[in-house]
Amino acid sequence: MTRRADLTPARLPRGFADRGAAELKAVREMADAIRETYELWGFEGLETPAFEYTDALGKFLPDQDRPNAGVFSLQDDDEQWMSLRYDLTAPLARFVAENFQRLPKPYRTYRFGPVFRNEKPGPGRFRQFLQFDADIVGAPNVTADAEMCMMMADTLEAVGVKRGDYVIKVNNRKILDGVMEAIGLGGDENAGRRLTVLRAIDKFDRLGADGVRALLGAGRKDESGDFTKGAGLDEDAAGRVLAILGAKAPTNRETASRLSGEFASTPTGAEGAAELSQMAELIEAADYADRVSVDPSVVRGLEYYTGPVFEAELTFEIADEDGRPIQFGSVGGGGRYDGLVGRFMAENVPATGFSIGMSRLLAALAALKKDEAKAPGPVVVLVLDRDRIGDSMALASRLRAAGIAAECYLGGSGMKAQMKYADRRNAPCVVIQGSDEREKGEVTLKDLVEGAKAAQAIADRAEWTESRPAQVTVPEADLVPQVQAILARHA
């Protein structure tokens, strides 16, 4: 066969992914569970557009002078720069500022949808991915932060993560800011070095103390030979930052007290330690201390956090492709960001929020459920007489009217190929009605699940043809209850 020269090659854009029916179903079920939990806590939904004016993204942009650095941007017909949203928080800040007078304060809201990063893709790292956020705007004290952490614990359990298989970690950026003021990294002129320090600490779980120390100093070369420039701290300053990571104690109150005693040498640090102590008390009073943990290693890499910061971490182990135990780690995070809404308004507006990375959480749940049976597909009504396809469609319609997922085969293949199609659709059973069955007012039902089990015990083709395992012919009037019985058997 000759190939046409004008054919366009079918190519998936680099860093993006197609999503099949099974993944879409899993996303929908997870999103429904998260939405129900958020609404149980009094949050209401909000949807913002995928595009925002580029200047509205503010601190979310890596480089204001190059709108395509980190985000995908274009100019509209008015020559104004617009960008695909980098996350779901910047659009919320813009929405609140535009609608501030009519919104209830505090404003409790959740958002769900895709976000886009114009960054180098890699294994498991995509340029488009799903986030599910919850935020409280207008609550000035850490009771909102404590509630956010507790709601995240409930959310993970709602989607299927068992208690004991996760922990919500919380820290306070004011303690870190206080330490950085004490070592001479305060002020706007040191914003870049502070961010380098924060990102170094954020890698503690992966790199350990030695790796973080290298990133706090001159820099670090990884196994591939790539070099990451460090923050340039001297040994004393680096040691003081690393000491924060050693403040973890057996209980939340003890950890908060230790942080207060050792790292509250500045007013900013003292305020952060006091806020952590208050959160520890609230978490304990609400009986969440076994799920929410004060942990000094949590920093979050973004500059705009102004107080408590938190992460949802999965603690269960799975085996990688080589059989080695690994942990999924963080599947979400957030914190207090009191300055973002104020970018659009004369007054400052306090806010706190949490974002779930849906793709990573889905992958974790898939690992937990990898031994479970594949979800059943629809019942497939086969078509043996093309000129009577309307009768087959009517049978499928009767099943759907009874709430049973069903489809009529619409291809042009014969019986054998139709059965293969039903297998690929993971159909629990097929409905067969040829001319003989139609004349008698009957249908034949074949239970594909039981048939597959029976086939394993039948070695002889003649025996298979004779026994027709898991196949029964019933009156057409009994179609719905008989199919329901098959589905119930495998529920």
TrEMBL record:
Question: Taking every annotated instance into account, which residue ranges of this chain make up the domain Aminoacyl-transfer RNA synthetases class-II family profile?
Answer: 28-376
Superkingdom of source = Bacteria
Q: What is its EC number?
A: 6.1.1.21
Main subcellular localisation: cytoplasm
**Which is an annotated Pfam family here?**
tRNA-synt_His
Under Gene Ontology molecular function, one entry of this record is: histidine-tRNA ligase activity
Keywords (alphabetical) are: Aminoacyl-tRNA synthetase, ATP-binding, Cytoplasm, Ligase, Nucleotide-binding, Protein biosynthesis
- Catalytic reaction equation(s): tRNA(His) + L-histidine + ATP = L-histidyl-tRNA(His) + AMP + diphosphate + H(+)
Residues passing through the membrane, by range: none
State the InterPro entries in the record. aa-tRNA-synth_II, aa-tRNA-synth_II/BPL/LPL, Anticodon-bd, Anticodon-bd_dom_sf, His-tRNA-ligase, HisRS-like_core, HisRS/HisZ, HisRS_anticodon
Subcellular location per UniProt equals:
Cytoplasm
Q: Which family does it belong to?
A: Belongs to the class-II aminoacyl-tRNA synthetase family.
Q: Describe the subunit structure.
A: Homodimer.
Name of this protein: Histidine--tRNA ligase
Q: Which organism is it from?
A: Chelatococcus sambhunathii
The record's gene field reads hisS
